[in-house]
Structure formats: C-alpha cells, structure tokens
Amino acid sequence: MISKVGVIGAGSMGTAVAQSISRRVGEVIVFGRRQEIVDSINTDNCNKRYFPGLRLNPNIHARLMGDRQGLADCEAVIIAVPSSEVRFIVNATHDELTGKFLVTVAKGLEYPSLKTMSEIIRDETGNPDIACFSGPTFADEVAYGHIAGATIGAGGDPSLRATISNLFGEFILDFSDDIRAVELCGVLKNVYAIGTGMWDSVYGNHNEHYTFLNMCYKEMCIFLRAISRDKGIFTKFCCFGDFNLTANVDKSRNRTLGLMVGKKIVKTPYLESGVTFEGSRSVKGIIELAENHSIDMPIARFVYDVLSGNNNVRESVDGVIRKAP
Ligand SMILES: NC(=O)C1=CN([C@@H]2O[C@H](COP(=O)(O)OP(=O)(O)OC[C@H]3O[C@@H](n4cnc5c(N)ncnc54)[C@H](OP(=O)(O)O)[C@@H]3O)[C@@H](O)[C@H]2O)C=CC1
Ligand SMILES: O=C(CO)COP(=O)(O)O
C-alpha cells in the first residue's frame, strides 16, 4: 500500500487530486514553484491562489519544486502541470522519478514530436509503470469531493491497476490498456471544446449547438477508430464524458477560449494570459497526427485557422459544414 504520494503542480488539478488522494494515503506532498503557495498550504491548509475557500486535509503538505529529497521520499508521483512543462520538469527531476510509479493527469500533445505525456515521461525516466488519468473532472468539483468518473490508462498488470484503483478510489473508474488512446482523447476533447465555443459564439440555437457537437464527436471517433487498439474507448469517461463536459460547459477554459475568440474578445496573445489553454497548444499537432494517418480533420483545421487569426468563425464555418465527416 502506497503511503506517501507526491503531486507535481500546485495549481487547480494538482491541488484537487491531492485533496482526493489524501483521504486514501498517509501523506500527500504537493510540489509548487511559488513560495507563497507552499506557505499557504503548510501554514493555513489552503491553496489561497487556486482554492481560497477550500480547507485542505491536514496530511497534505507542500514543498518547493527544488526539494529533491522531498520528491525522492514519495513512493508514487502524479504529474499535474501544463503539458508544455512536463518534459522540462520530468527531465529536471529524473533522478527522483526514475523507478517510481508515475501518473500523468496532463492533457496535451508535444510538438513537433507528437508525443503524449506518458511517452515524454517514459523518454525522460525509462519507467515502465507510467499511467494516465483522464475524464470529466473539473478540478474545482474534484476538490470539493463531487462524484466524477475517469479513465485510467495503464498496462494490464493487475497489481498496477490495484494500486491505481486505491489511489483514485474516490472516482468512478474505467480502464484501458491503450494509454496513448486515452491521452489522445484528452487532447482531442480540448480542441473540440474550443471549436464548440467558437461555433456557439455565432450560432446560438439548440439545434445548431447539438448538430455541431455531433459533427465534432464524429470527427473525433473517426480519428480514434484509426489509432486506438481499445475498440471500447468511445464510451469511456476519457472520451464521451470528457468531450461532453468541456464542449458543453462554460466552466471549461478551452470552451471559454473558443467563445472569446469567436466573439473577437481576445486575439492570439491570449497564450500570454497565464491561463492553461491546452487545446490551443495541441491543435496543430493533432492535425499533423491525423494527416500521418491519412485522416482529414476539417473541424480541427477550422479551430486552428480561427485561432491563428487566418479567418473568423463565419468565414471558416461554411468549409466545416461542407467538409465535416
Ligand atoms: N483544471 C482542470 O479542471 C483539469 C486540468 N487537467 C489538466 O491538468 C494539467 C494542469 O492543468 P491545471 O492544473 O488545470 O492548470 P493550472 O493553470 O490551474 O495550474 C498549473 C500549475 O502548474 C504550475 N506550473 C506551470 N509551469 C510550471 C513549471 N515550469 N514548474 C513548476 N510548476 C509549473 C503552475 O504554477 P503557478 O501557480 O506558479 O503558475 C500551477 O501551479 C493540464 O494539462 C490540464 O489539462 C485535467 C483535468 C481537469
Ligand atoms: O480537462 C478538463 C476537465 O476534464 C478541464 O477542461 P479545461 O482545461 O477546458 O478547463
């Protein structure tokens, strides 16, 4: 039984996962890069920057990212930073992470390598046991203990699954041994959340919304059918559940980005906002990955065109309707 778990990333998802897991293990150590967050967690049992109203469980402690011994003492480590940071951070903590049980919750695709997070982590650590966690899991709702489902992407080793099931025992879990496919679901759903936000910024009726949603899900399933070994992936939490959560709910940062870009409230510097918009970083890679499999993704291309400022939603959307699968 794992007793000490590390969480790299003291943001919304890192804090939320720490709160959930802390009810199932002896201690959770959250590693952050801001001293004031580390202090607020250790002094006030609260991450004042991300969840100012949430009292964290007393067995959650925080350390600065550089605390190598603190990380070395953890038996399992969860990586909860934006996908753009994963390679740098895992490379920098290679010695402490090698040989450990690692789980990534990050939803992104490295460019131009087109590697998923678990593939990056394996590159950097050589660990055989790397799992991913992905599903309809808004961090704030996880942090406050609401029911959530998630897919665990992991190898078929029964002891590995038992370990994961215990760590994430507060979630309703399904499993897949196609880790890459699970992670790509999380990448795709962010792209379609932006796309649905863009569409809804122009077409506000119910019929229009669900027509476009269906077009997105169809394009996503065509891609997954081509790349996934897990033929049941389509009904798993990482796919149908997370796709619908983020495409339909304004709480989604990706959907909100689509709405704001569609309404011309923001232009491309939004990446400097400091908000984690994973879909905008991964859309180009997902298009290239699809092309490598001779798959056309008109909706993903629509998202990329509008995000790039090449076109606005109205100019681009006719192409989508004509070409969408
Ligand atoms: N939020 C959610 O609802 C969910 C998020 N996820 C995924 O989790 C991942 C993390 O996102 P999320 O927690 O939402 O993002 P947030 O923006 O809420 O937090 C990101 C955290 O990463 C830290 N960070 C960023 N760069 C570095 C770095 N170079 N070194 C150390 N720490 C760093 C930030 O530090 P600082 O505070 O100093 O900026 C912050 O603590 C994403 O891939 C996301 O898709 C998955 C499911 C749900
Ligand atoms: O992945 C998430 C919920 O499962 C969070 O979505 P956003 O990054 O769009 O906020």
UniProtKB/TrEMBL annotation:
InterPro entries per the UniProt record, alphabetical:
6-PGluconate_DH-like_C_sf, 6PGD_dom2, G3P_DH_NAD-dep, G3P_DH_NAD-dep_C, G3P_DH_NAD-dep_N, NAD(P)-bd_dom_sf
Which of UniProt's keywords are assigned here?
NAD, Oxidoreductase
Q: Which GO terms describe its cellular component?
A: cytosol
Residue sites binding NAD(+) per the record: 9-14, 139, 253
- Entry's Gene Ontology molecular function annotations: glycerol-3-phosphate dehydrogenase [NAD(P)+] activity; NAD binding
Asked whether the keyword Transmembrane is assigned, the reply is no
Q: Does the keyword Oxidoreductase apply?
A: yes
Q: Which residues bind substrate?
A: 107, 253-254
> Start and end of every Glycerol-3-phosphate dehydrogenase NAD-dependent C-terminal domain?
178-317
Domain Glycerol-3-phosphate dehydrogenase NAD-dependent N-terminal stretches: 4-154
Q: Where is the active site?
A: 189
Cross-referenced Pfam families, in alphabetical order? NAD_Gly3P_dh_C, NAD_Gly3P_dh_N
Report the record's Gene Ontology biological process terms: carbohydrate metabolic process; glycerol-3-phosphate catabolic process
Family of the protein in this entry: Belongs to the NAD-dependent glycerol-3-phosphate dehydrogenase family.
What protein is this chain from? NAD(P)-binding domain-containing protein
Q: What organism does the UniProt record list as the source?
A: Methanoculleus submarinus
